[in-house]
Amino acid sequence: xxxxxxxxxxxxxxxxxxxxxxxxxxxxxxxxxxxxxxxxxxxxxxxxxxxxxxxxxxxxxxxxxxxxxxxxxxxxxxxxxxxxxxxxxxxxxxxxxxxxxxxxxxxxxxxxxxxxxxxxxxxxxxxxxxxxxxxxxxxxxxxxxxxxxxxxxxxxxxxxxxxxxxxxxxxxxxxxxxxxxxxxxxxxxxxx
Length: 192
Hints:
alpha+beta, 6 strands, about 190 residues, globular, 6 helices
């Protein structure tokens, strides 16, 4: 094969590599844009600290479980802390956080009551779910689709949801968001 014969092949290979690289970059941009859409519009995250997710099946009937922990920006944490206890209703908290897509509802302050795992055996053993603290594992495992998480991350999130000082809201399709200004954390959990 002469050099003249290889030129078209090298050109095609270069176009193929450039196309794959462009698709990869576009996919990463779309994934980050989708991920950012879950974060309320008046909040900024600095970086992702932890992420674990698992998907069982696609489309209707499929299930997903995910836990993502972000570092909340210093300026947003300070802004939310300035409000103090004046953020005491869904409307006031929603205004401070901003909208997300899909939007969150029922904003409230922590601690969060225990999560109902729809477990009859647990109900018989603990007649009132309020008899023990909420745990993120109970939220993530509520439909039986378990993910392995770092125990230190799980403990940290449990502390956020069981102590005063943070905010939480439910989202469409089985999502939960927790915002902790004091610890500069934003947690997104999904079980659905």
